[in-house]
Specification:
heterotetramer; A: 324 residues; alpha/beta; Rossmann fold; 2 domains; seven-stranded mixed sheet; five-stranded mixed sheet; globular; B: 357 residues; five-stranded parallel sheet; two-stranded antiparallel sheet; 13 helices; 7 strands; 47% helix; binds thiamine diphosphate; binds magnesium ion
Chain lengths: 324, 357, 324, 357
């Protein structure tokens, strides 16, 4: 197991190991070379592998994804970095119409094992476009796989697995957890499996990425202060969703809330809530509640603590769902 | 090169050029003629099949045979080409069965062949996207050879005059230039993007776009198969040698409608077509063959016969194309098993089994 | 009232009238000038208003939206045409990060009254990228308004209203209904209001755009064949959603299905179903069911009748929801 | 113009140029000096405020004062400018209160002022997007004047060397060219895009990009305020007259970090900075003023005093900026009332009222 490492360091380790293991793995993006990425996740890779395998790209996100597609067609496994969530949109066409659809279009002939790493989410006091949660756009796009880790141990293993996956994977990194530490070590779940991170019987709390730590805090508080036992489930995979453990949980608790940073309206929480409502229709004692951001652009950073779900707001939802 | 490279005039006169020329045998020349006649026939036949309701749509290449055959025949087997939706002629030179192209426009597949079998990517419908794929592929070629060695093989990306306005195409120029990627950008300037004339996309000749990115830009008579062959060979050689990207503007004309859904009489005048008819890409080769004796009537009749046979085969093969099974829409969403798709597929089978098909 | 006209003609009329009424209204897009658009929706505008007000643009969708933003900042009201649904993605960055957010970013100082018309949806036997339903991507984006008409009468009035709206409006036109005819005339609802298009008491059917006609057919058949009475609601506005009439309906029927062409997973149906489940929790007798496309890229056209919801599949859902 | 236009050498030597020159009074020159000293002080002060935790981030303009003041002072009140996030100097010339800029980087607003009050759009953070807005705005200017008349006023769009690789920026060139829009593309080539040197974006000088689109491209010593003023005036005049777009590459250097979050020692060497320090934009004007007597020590002391006063005011005003009310995030999502936002806002007020604030 060894020393606890930060999530950023774990991801960096995963990239080092993946590149060592498979000469076809390339890393590409803006500032990923000498600088090691603005979050240092690609640190040391260029020194070891040079321009041949670590490509500092022009400032062009569509180019990053478009070129990665071409490299994948030539047999490479590119790992792209998009510098921040808000800068993925110039690449949206390449992701949606090409990366996601090429395998189907070619009737299975062309595989595009491209991983797109995106630091996402808020809570770091950043300026506009540096705090967004774009997962719903990608989840609605068939042909992509979307995963997100919540701590260093998952981060390491999930990134390794994403890189070996033969499908395109959008790998969302909760940037405000980059500095959280955990010990590395074996992870039981496969890349597309969710995990019960805290067992409980009163309310099921479904979350992922940056919200997992927050929901665990909520569960701790609810236990201490009200003797409530919340079951917290970290989805880990957002497409496909692995809701089996959620359904099992709700069958016992009868109450569920879904928490994400993204705006609630049209967010992934809607998909999750709908599936819970469908599968657990007769065990639900209250409607599934969603906790997320309002239908508004990400606000200036002085307001982000209001915009983002926090312990209080999640506790409030727990109260509400229990009172219904 | 600011002038139009021409090696064969519309009248079938052979010209020579100090830098770009081809030393071509009668055999090869007859091959190019055959290629052009056959792809024109393929095109006409597909057009007819669309009119008969066998295809949903067809984007004709009429008028662009020389540009496509010249470029396609400049490629070696280990080169790789990225087409738009109109490169039926290039597909032909890459050994793609034309039936696969019909299959796409008949709506039985969104692809139709394995690109790696032919060094020929699938048609790209979203304008310009493929140019970046080509650059990425070329960067892979560089890496396979080693960044300090000549790449050895080349990549070519086709696109249209309209596509030159897309951000992606210009990003592709940037990427190719800074990476010195072994890629040839081949722009078929057929003067129109659906109803938009060239002046909506640029106010200077398109080949000059390349200068702005630090790449050579070359302009060629796109209706002259020899000139296109010569210039594309040169550009590919450059790429293979490690001398980097270039842009070829093949100056040509879309003689037909944009697609079978289009009505060009709404936006362009007949006189323009008249002028371009005089520059027909096939006629000039025929004239040259006949004049030089490299090809005679008998040869031409034979080619026409081959075209007839191919057309008959195509017609039949098109009609025989089986409809895909409903299941096919689930089959290749992912390369590896995916839970949701499997669930939905199961549901679907049951639903169809319950006689809703 | 007059003669019935096609939806395409009604939209064309709306553009003519809007341009006549307000000299600041511009029309721009690929092939919108002399050709009159590939669906002829902009026919005759260029002849009347010349390049000054009808702008044939370069082939660049990001350019169309980006330039429209600039024109709006200068006081114009651009109506942009994106030629087909599948070609909106190159403009996704400009729509998501600029068009949607500029008003909020400027604390209300800058209004962007831009209308983006997009022919959308399938069923016309087209090649790839010509049949998609991208509404969920836009609905999740705060700052945009999304509407869709289902016939000529709504088409005319809704487009007029969209153009006068001071917010950006994504105006989705169900392309397979372009040739359907209806009489023009006054419409009761405002632009952002839904409408009960058929009253009934057994099951609530929520739909929009191209699916409205299909759902009305379903209601007709269900009535004839099984004596069932379906209440069909045309949402018309997708963001904001006007679900009041839906909640009222479900309070009576206890059963609801939501129908759209887009893939179900992460689609707008999830948002609608979740809100119904929440608001009508105690009146629902069965989970809300969704009918839409599977999680797969739009298939080759020979398969689209399997991919798209049709009368049979919707009837099947009606049966299912009633049997639950 | 393939050489760097220079009118004032780093040593403060005045040069002349046949096509681009300025006839400038002592008063004006002192004004430019004052502008540059003040914006440098603004920048230093903002930097300090970030270090003290008063701002979340600051992108310094250090080294780019001449490029920004020269360009900004070339604008007339009825012109319109579209900045990136680093144009504090241009903002200054447009009369934007520097406190508004601090407000943005303090996180109390995503904007900070009404663009129409200043003919100065809000900062654009997503690289390159603003260039298309500028072209659209310029097309509006054309339409206001009538397509057959000179537009009368000009539009300028700022962007960086890195931005030149974005699709949108190149689409903006296309649009500007084919519409002959009255827009000046002003590229501050400060040699770096965060850690990426210019060679990652282009292999030829950036001003040449314009040629490929059929627009004039000009290169100017970006650390020479007179040369920048002259060339930008000329380009804007061109635009106003109806002669269309042009590109100016202001060759300069980012003396500071990319932003306060960046650590440039990881990717660039001190010697490069040393060289550029010798080309400081302010020093050369100071030398020229002193030598010609157009400005003396007393004047310079006075400017320094003004800078101190401004800095003190800024510091205080920054600290006094009130935090926005939570409600503010709902206030301007839409221009017209929208049901969902109103519902959520109501919920929010109740929630906060119940003491969750
Ligand atoms: C991104 C995108 N926008 C719009 C279209 C619709 N469209 C199809 S072909 C075409 C014109 C293309 O012109 P050009 O690049 O000159 O190629 P050509 O058709 O002349 O071969 C347009 C606008 C598209 N396919 N993709
Ligand atoms: C679309 C997009 N991608 C990435 C970024 C992150 N980013 C911010 S500034 C910057 C470099 C910009 O370089 P340049 O255009 O030269 O301007 P400069 O910062 O030098 O003024 C990058 C990559 C961004 N803001 N937007
Ligand atoms: Mg064309
Ligand atoms: Mg720079």
């Amino acid at each position: 197991m060894g020393e606890p490492v930060t999530l950023a360091a774990a991801l960096n380790q995963a990239l080092h190991d993946a590149m060592d293991d498979d000469p076809k793995v390339l890393v590409m993006g803006e500032d990923v070379g000498r600088l090691g990425g603005v979050f240092r996740v690609t640190e040391g890779l260029h020194a070891k592998h040079t321009d041949a395998r670590v490509i500092d790209t022009p400032l062009s996100e569509s180019g990053i994804v478009g070129a990665a597609i071409g490299l994948a067609m030539r047999g490479y496994r590119p790992v792209c970095e998009i510098q921040f969530d808000g800068f993925v949109f110039p690449a949206f066409d390449q992701i949606t119409t090409q990366l996601a659809k090429m395998h189907a279009r070619s009737d299975g002939a062309t595989r595009l094992p491209v991983t797109i790493r995106i630091p996402y989410g808020g809570g770091i006091g950043a300026v506009e476009h540096h705090s967004e949660s774009p997962e719903a756009y990608f989840a609605h796009t068939a042909g992509l796989r979307i995963v997100t880790c919540s701590h260093a141990r998952d981060g390491y293993q999930m990134l390794r697995q994403a890189i070996t996956c033969d499908d395109p994977v959008i790998f969302l990194e909760p940037k405000r957890r980059y500095w959280d530490k955990a010990e590395l070590g074996d992870v039981g779940e496969g890349l597309f499996q969710s995990r019960v991170v805290r067992a409980g019987g009163d309310v099921t709390v479904v979350c992922y990425g940056p919200m997992v730590r927050t929901c665990l805090e909520v569960a701790g508080l609810a236990h201490e202060e009200d003797g409530l036992s919340l079951e917290v489930i970290d989805l880990r995979s957002l497409s496909p969703l692995d809701l089996g453990p959620v359904f099992d949980s709700v069958a016992r608790t009868g109450r569920a809330i879904v928490v994400h940073e993204a705006p609630v309206f049209g967010g992934l929480g809607a998909e999750i809530a709908t599936r819970i409502s469908e599968k657990c229709f007769f065990s639900l004692e209250a409607p599934v509640l969603r906790v997320g951001a309002p239908h508004a652009p990400y606000p200036p950073s002085k307001l982000e603590h209001h915009y983002l779900p926090d312990v209080d707001r999640i506790l409030d939802a727990v109260d509400t769902v229990r009172g219904m | 090169m600011s002038e139009l490279l021409q090696l064969l005039t519309p009248e079938g006169q052979r010209l020579h050029h100090p830098d770009y020329d081809v030393d071509i045998s009668g055999e090869e020349l007859r091959g190019l003629y055959r290629d052009m006649v056959l792809v024109r026939r393929l095109d006409t036949e597909a057009h007819a099949l669309q009119r008969q309701g066998e295809l949903g749509l067809w984007p004709p290449l009429l008028g662009q045979e020389a540009a496509q055959i010249g470029a396609g025949r400049a490629l070696r087997p280990d080169d790789y080409a990225f087409p738009t939706y109109r490169e039926h002629g290039v597909a032909w030179t890459r050994g793609v069965d034309p039936v696969s192209l019909l299959a796409l426009f008949r709506g039985v597949t969104n692809g139709g062949y394995d690109p790696t079998d032919h060094g020929f990517a699938l048609p790209t419908i979203v304008i310009g996207d493929q140019t970046l794929h080509a650059v990425g592929y070329a960067m892979g070629v560089q890496r396979d050879a080693g960044l300090d060695s000549p790449p050895g093989s080349g990549v070519i990306s086709f696109f249209g005059d309209g596509a030159s306005s897309q951000g992606d195409v210009n990003e592709a120029f940037v990427w190719a230039a800074v990476n010195n990627a072994p890629v040839v950008f081949f722009c078929q300037n057929n003067q129109w993007a659906i109803s938009q004339p060239l002046s909506r996309q640029t106010r200077i000749p398109l080949y000059r776009r390349a200068e702005g990115f630090g790449c050579p830009g070359l302009r060629v008579d796109g209706n002259d198969v020899l000139a296109v062959l010569a210039i594309t060979r040169a550009a590919l050689d450059r790429a293979r040698r490690g001398d980097g990207p270039s842009l070829i503007e093949a100056y040509t004309y879309r003689m037909g409608a944009h697609t079978t859904s289009d009505d060009p009489t709404r936006y362009r005048v007949e006189t323009e077509l008249e002028q371009w008819r005089l520059k027909d890409p096939i006629e000039r080769v025929r004239a040259y063959l006949l004049r030089t004796g490299a090809g005679d009537r008998a040869f031409m009749d034979e080619v026409d016969q081959q075209a007839d046979d191919m057309a008959a085969r195509l017609r039949q093969a098109c009609r025989d194309l089986p409809d895909p099974a409903p299941d096919a829409m689930f089959a290749h969403v992912y390369a590896e098993p995916q839970d949701l798709v499997q669930q939905e597929q199961r549901w679907w089978r049951e639903y169809l089994g319950a006689d809703h098909g």
